């Protein structure tokens, strides 16, 4: 499989892990030095990101990636695209779109997400 498609496949697996609140799968996809910046400017390390996204603070229903464009240099990939998120807030689903950037690194023949940023919110 082409490396670009491998990165896209991993990004989609990350989105699925969010939707399923699957902390184990999410952890396997994230580099141990992972960092994330939210659309409102909060930053989280790997442990905090996993906890916040799988233990009910944010209840995901789905995340769909579109328009993914990947640039790869050696063992580093940068993915830019747009996501459509469906999350539960106060029991009601809310849908919004935003641009996303993810940095992936190849480690032991596997792509791991090292860092990412989503936002600003479009809708």
Q: What would you report as the Rg, rounded to the nearest angstrom?
A: 14 Å
Largest sheet: 6 strands, mixed
Structural class: alpha+beta
Number of separate helices: 3
Give the helix proportion (percent range). 25-40%
Name the descriptors:
globular, about 120 residues, alpha+beta, 6-stranded mixed β-sheet
Task: List the SSEs and their pairings.
Blueprint: H1 3-19, H2 23-29, E1 30-37, E2 43-45, H3 46-54, E3 59-73, E4 76-89, E5 92-107, E6 110-118
Parallel strand pairs: 1-6
Antiparallel strand pairs: 1-2, 3-4, 4-5, 5-6
How does this model look, in words?
This protein is an alpha+beta fold and 123 residues long. Helix content is 27%, strand content 53%. It is built from three helices and six strands. The model has no long low-confidence stretch (mean pLDDT 95).
